[in-house]
Predict the structure.
Amino acid sequence: MTWREPRRRRAALLGLLGVFAGSLALAQGGADRGSVDGRRSSYREMGPALQRMQDDDTANPGMLFVQLGRQLWSRPMGVAGKACADCHEVQDMKGVAARYPAMADDAAGGSRPVDLEGRIGLCHAQHQQSEPWPAESRDLLALSAFVALQSRGQPIAPPDDPRLAPARAQGEALYRTRQGQLNLSCALCHDDNAGRKLAGITIPQAHPTGYPIYRLEWQGLGSLRRRLRNCLIGIRAEPYAYDASEYVALEIYLMDRARGMASEAPAVRP
Amino acid sequence: MTNVLINVPRTARKGEVIELKALIMHPMETGFRPGTNGTIIPRNIIERFVATWNGAEIFSMDFSPAVAANPFVSFFAVAEESGTIAFRWTGDEGFEAEESVAIDVA
């Protein structure tokens, strides 16, 4: 190999880079969606094929669950024989999912922060007097996807409820606590190294804009709680029990962190 | 319960090539996975998908255990006459689902 060849190759490479940068600029010009003052929805880290899958309501498999949820919405359930539709109007659900987690009164007379699935579960138990749905069960996810769809495009707007503050602080502390055998915190990846690669995958900024999500890896719909469990297992920490308050605390902090970003449920993620 | 989403244009010009898309909720259990108690979960997949236009078959495919859950099928056809396009899925455990849409060809 002579000395001239690598130089020619370098020139060609520079040319290619120019083309790449040009197409990147073009692509970003048209796709500002999912970005608010530097915060990026992980929608923007996906390839165009997956973005189209999410955007097309007849190709997004999450919409199958929405369709199921729509049927469940008006189906009488439990001892009370009431349907969601007997108390709520669908149009009143607009923006609701973007406000959760929020405070709710539980059966014991106290109040605690609950996420959307928790709220639906409370309604199911208290007002419909039904057997509680297991966590991550299909019907619970379907109803929550149907309710979340009503907030599509709405900005995430956590309530200014002072009673949520302790849980939010707990959530932020958890977010910054190193744990697991890998001794990682959420913040180490999603704040300090977001946008960089982890095994070929872009580390997202972890804004929960599209839950419940249809995750291709799961071959199904899943909640933010399931996603958090995945992360905990990934750093080789022992996940909290499914009904642990730690998840809601983390969710409150994450939703506050994503304040103002557009809801996109049911999102598709790889 | 069948849960299907179909995307077919409601109208088409005669001779136009149209795209037909069909999405169905189904677990597509492979038959190779062990359950929590160690025994194999029995196979439960869609085996065949057939689309007909006014009764005449325009597209069909066999599914395999490698096909993802909630399979999405997209294909093209030439619009020749107005009528009904029917989609039919059949599979393990007596699974049967059918959905049809009307199309106006002018």
Observations:
- Chain A has a mean pLDDT of 87.
- Chain A touches chain B at residues 56-59, 61, 63-65, 67-68, 216, 219-220 (CB under 8 Å).
- Residues 40-270 of chain A form a domain with the Cytochrome Bc1 Complex; Chain D, domain 2 fold (CATH 1.10.760.10).
